[in-house]
Amino acid sequence: MSNADHECAEKELSPGIPAPPPETTPDPMSSGGAAPPSLSLPAALTVAFATVLCVLAALVHVCLVFLYVAPSNTVSRRYEQPIDAWIYPYFEQNWQLFAPDPQSVLWQISARSATVAPDGSRQAGEWLDLTAIDDAAVRHTPFPSHTAQNMLGRAWGAYQETHRLGEQSTSERARMLQEYLTNIAAQRLAVGARPSFDAVQLRVVSTPIAPQASPAPADVSSTSTPSNVTYLPWWQVESHDR
Fold it and tell me: What is the pLDDT of residues 184-211, one digit of tens each?
């Protein structure tokens, strides 16, 4: 017997040193631990269906956004209407992040509602300053709502852009933006106005933002920036917009 074997035998026979317990693998069932729960067949099918649906929705969204931002081609021209219906007004894409276009005009947008009397006359309500409501919602707020900041202004800017391009009511996008503005005004007016109304009207006060003042004093009359008031026509409101 070698010296190493002799030392190992002495350690095993030494009465003062207990032998280490044998290593065993714990059995999760015998130790009282419960096995991880498994999904039932209906639940597993539901999770799989929801996962596939989310993946398909993400792929469709990416494809539609790609066709919108890509140069005009046969596919984008053929499916222009469904692409615009998906993109506007919530997923609009532009290059302002890389080429910003600072706002040069301040808009104060107000709205009022009206009902038609039995004799056929229109009874208009008081003007409600929608811009002031949005400003109050974000003022002194560390994390203001992006929707409260930009929804109304972007809707009006896009609607005004369609009129500058001469689209007016001849394009699907112009009609959609008009309906979008109507819905915004109707929802805001329905909060504190009369319980029901038949039409809404918007009033927009546009004030150009004056350029940075020069060090030399200038004539007050030459630096004044007059405001321009625009009254939009009365737009009919359906029952689901009230």
Answer: 999 888 886 556 888 999 999 999 887 7
Residue 3: what residue type?
A: N
Across the chain, mean pLDDT equals 77
Q: Taken in order 175, 178, 180, 183, is the CA torsion positive or negative? A: negative
Packing angle, helices 146-164 and 130-138, rounded to 10: 140
Question: Residue 137 — φ and ψ, nearest 5°?
Answer: -75, -25
Q: CB of 124 within 8 A of CB of 143?
A: no
CA distance 63 to 86: 11
Q: For the stretch 175-209, what's the b/e string if a residue is b when 16 or more beta carbons lie within 10 angstroms of its beta carbon?
A: ebbbebbbbbbbebbbeebeeebbbbbbbbebeee
Taking the C-alpha atoms of residue 61 and residue 64, their distance in angstroms, rounded to an integer, is 5
Per the CB < 8 A criterion, the answer to whether 67 and 59 are in contact is: no
Q: How far is CA 73 from CA 77, 79, 81, 158, 165, in A?
A: 6, 10, 14, 23, 21
User: Between these two residues, 97 and 57, which has the higher pLDDT value?
Assistant: 57
214 vs 234: CA distance, rounded Å = 43
Question: Do 148 and 134 contact (CB within 8 A), yes or no?
Answer: yes
Answer whether 34's CB lies under 8 Å from 57's CB: no
* Average pLDDT score over residue span 22-45: 66
Q: What are residue 122's DSSP bridge partners? A: 116
